[in-house]
Design a protein that fits this description.
single chain; alpha+beta; six-stranded mixed β-sheet; five-stranded mixed β-sheet; 28 helices; 42% helix
């Protein structure tokens, strides 16, 4: 993985803006040229590691004091000898690149196996070393990691080499996330040293970094790499905005920082409350400052940083929060609890903002030291995630606790929901161009929600996902027959956008031959759903011509003789003509009441009919009504359904099969994929009404059948 030497704007590493010593504290920048000379000519300390990787050993021992460094020495020797004679475009010995990548990972807390593979990550690609030699010398794990980050040859894949390389890395990451950790560190060092490349190549690499690598760093929780990658990409792709932001930060650095006084007040408040805490000022990186400026317009002095409060235990986080909200004025709209509800990338913190008596507003992050390690290093902080670590306070334990849910897909933090979905849909995208464009679109969705299935399981979906996405996530290709959904117990259209915490029940038609509507493509967010729908429509062009929710004109079907409804109702008015009201079509054994109308006739209504309340409000006296011997009767039913072809025919057939005559039927135009059918029916026996309604509900697509409350249109 060849790397170039220089900063994005041509500045030396010592003056590169994102490494401004006034903005970031930490280990001094390593002199790569000196390391290169040491790698080629420098002596090794007797019995120890070569001087060239002394910094790696120091950083590694800071996280793993008992680490066995012998394997690192052997890996370094193999890497140095195999890369000997190769130079970077900057003129530095090539060995400086794997050394720098390994140092990045060591400072993040990567374990020995990852560092070993990092030292060797370019040997198979750029030297005569083979995977078999790596396996023989360092074992299967190191060999797998090296193979995972090794590029495919352009001579074999041509223009498809880059997308297919990323596909290969992602598949390998599905089995071991350390593959992507190495790739991210490799890209960071290449971005740091990109300035010697032609401007057009800088832009191309920065664009891929922005579209693919930065979202992957975010999803894996490696914020330390993500933020620096963002700044480097920002400088290349948006140089004008970058210069404005750089000037604003430089001006603020030269002025007094109001956060320093607020930090002192916070330390005093927590000390007086007996809470042991470390309070730090955390400067915003360049892209973060730019985003705040775009959101708020003019920046305040406190917008250039945030306060970071580090405590020992989870309970101390909430204790510190309570003290800050008591002693300062909280900005309630800024409060977020990512401890009780961790982000999908393992991130945990309390976010709040407080206002001082002087009117300054400071954003505050509150987390434990272990949460901070996971927030900065993400999956790298897991160490070796495939070997359980002892001790309840290990970073891996914290990360696993953050990732664990009731869904089996989420229990293992090394296979989060988004990665499982990505690995699933990529199998259905054999074309490199389709895979590449779909991958970029998928990674552009930067938030994830969790919805609950009706059976108690959960589904992880991108923010903005609809019921269609949930259907394909739960049922795969069986979702082609989806006809609707219930969201939080209420019927909803398939286009309904789901929110975090919703409960969704998908309704599938019994007719498995039915397929999706082209309209579904307008409201899907997940690649798996889009690929499945597109595949079905391509395979069934004749079905695509008849969308499930195509507008229908109002249809009227009349059948059977217009027979007089034999009332079967006995009223307390002698010789009165009895009529059953058309607005509610009462049938035995409905509770009914009657009212005398013009001509002396008595009209019978169901007691719950709105007409009854209206008559009573007018002072009309009710007439007692009782049901006599049951016989044939007329009733109006309303069928609510999801629109689909042949629905009217299927409902009419179900009614006829039940031995019921259709007096009239109307079909209203569909609204949001739902359609209403109203039937006036002549039943031979009122006792058969419940069975008839059940039969109609069993027709695919029908989700409710009820008695009408208004007259039907004949």
């Amino acid at each position: 993985m060849s790397a170039e030497a220089a900063s994005p704007n041509g500045a030396s590493p010592e003056t590169r803006p994102v490494d401004n010593p006034g903005r970031r504290r930490g280990r001094a920048r390593i002199d790569l040229r000196r390391l290169g000379r040491a790698a080629l000519f420098g002596p090794a300390s007797r019995g120890g590691l070569p001087d060239a990787i002394g910094h790696v050993a120091e950083a590694h021992r800071a996280h793993f004091p008992d680490a066995d460094l012998a394997v690192l020495r052997r890996a370094y020797v193999l890497a140095e000898t195999s890369h000997r004679g190769q130079m970077r475009k900057s003129g530095e010995p090539y060995i400086t690149h794997p050394l720098a990548v390994t140092l990045i990972l060591a400072e993040l807390g990567a374990e020995t196996t990852t560092l070993t593979a990092s030292l060797l990550h370019d040997t198979v690609e750029d030297t005569e070393v083979t995977l078999d030699q790596v396996r023989a010398g360092f074992g299967d794990e190191v060999c797998y990691l090296v193979d995972g980050v090794t590029k495919l040859e352009k001579v074999d894949y041509g223009a498809a080499a880059e997308p297919e390389t990323f596909r290969k890395m992602l598949v390998a990451t599905g089995d071991d996330v350390r593959v992507m950790s190495i790739k991210l560190a490799d890209r960071l060092h290449n971005m740091r040293t990109l300035g010697v490349m032609r401007p057009e190549k800088q832009v191309r690499i920065a664009k891929v970094t922005s579209d693919v690598l930065i979202p992957l760093a975010e999803r894996l929780g490696v914020q330390a790499l993500k933020t620096e990658l963002e700044d480097l990409v920002f400088a290349i792709l948006h140089p004008a905005e970058y210069e404005i932001t750089r000037a604003l930060i430089a001006a603020q650095d030269a002025a007094a920082d109001p956060l320093a006084a607020i930090a002192d007040d916070v330390r005093r408040v927590l000390r007086e409350a007996g809470i042991t805490a470390e309070v730090l000022i955390r400067p915003r990186h360049f892209v973060s400052v730019h985003r705040v400026r775009m959101k708020r317009g003019e920046l305040c002095p406190t917008d250039f940083g945030r306060l970071l409060v580090l405590v020992g235990e989870d309970a101390d986080c909430y204790g510190a929060l309570g003290e800050l909200h008591t002693c300062f004025t909280p900005v309630i709209s800024e409060f977020k609890d990512f401890i009780a509800s961790p982000k999908f990338n393992l991130y945990q913190s309390l976010h709040t903002a407080v206002a001082t008596p002087g009117g300054d507003v400071a954003e505050v992050l509150i987390r434990t030291h272990l949460m901070h390690k996971v927030a900065e290093a993400g999956v790298v902080a897991l160490g070796n995630p495939y070997v359980p670590l002892d001790g309840p306070q290990s970073a891996a334990t914290i990360a696993r606790a953050a990732a664990g849910t009731t869904d089996g897909e989420r229990v293992d933090p090394t296979r989060p929901g988004w990665l499982s979905r990505l690995l699933a849909w990529q199998e259905s995208a054999p074309d490199p161009d389709t895979f590449w464009s779909t991958l970029r679109a998928d990674l552009a969705q930067d938030r994830e929600i969790t919805v609950f299935r009706a059976d108690g399981g959960t589904l992880g979906l991108p923010a903005g996902a609809s019921c269609v996405d949930a259907a394909y996530a739960q049922h795969g290709e069986k979702a082609h027959a989806c006809i609707g959904a219930r969201v939080n117990g209420r019927l909803a259209t398939l286009s309904t956008v789901l929110s975090d915490g919703d409960t969704v029940q998908l309704l599938l038609a019994e007719d498995t031959a039915s397929g999706p509507s082209p309209d579904w493509l307008g409201h899907v967010r997940t690649p798996a759903a889009r690929i499945a729908i597109t595949g079905w429509l391509d395979a069934h062009p004749e079905g695509a011509a008849v969308p499930a929710a195509a507008p229908r004109p109002i249809a009227s079907v009349t059948g059977g003789a217009m027979r007089r409804a034999a009332a079967g109702a006995v009223v307390g008015v002698p010789n009165a003509t009895v009529r059953l009201a058309g607005c509610c079509t009462p049938v035995p054994p409905d509770a009914v009441t009657g009212f005398t109308v013009r001509g002396g006739a008595v009209t019978v209504h169901r007691e719950g009919c709105p007409s009854v309340a209206r008559m009573l409000s007018l002072g009309r006296p009710p007439v007692e009504v009782n049901w006599g011997a049951t016989g044939d009767c007329r009733v109006t039913l309303v069928a609510e359904a999801f629109g689909r072809p042949q629905l009217l025919a299927d409902l009419t057939e179900a009614i006829a099969t039940a031995g019921v005559a259709v007096v009239s039927a109307t079909v209203e135009p569909p609204s949001e994929q739902r359609v209403r059918h109203t039937y006036t029916l002549q039943l031979p026996d009122a006792a058969g009404l419940p069975a008839l309604m059940r039969t109609m509900r069993d027709v695919p697509g029908v989700y409710d059948v009820s008695r009408a409350q208004h007259p039907a249109t004949a």
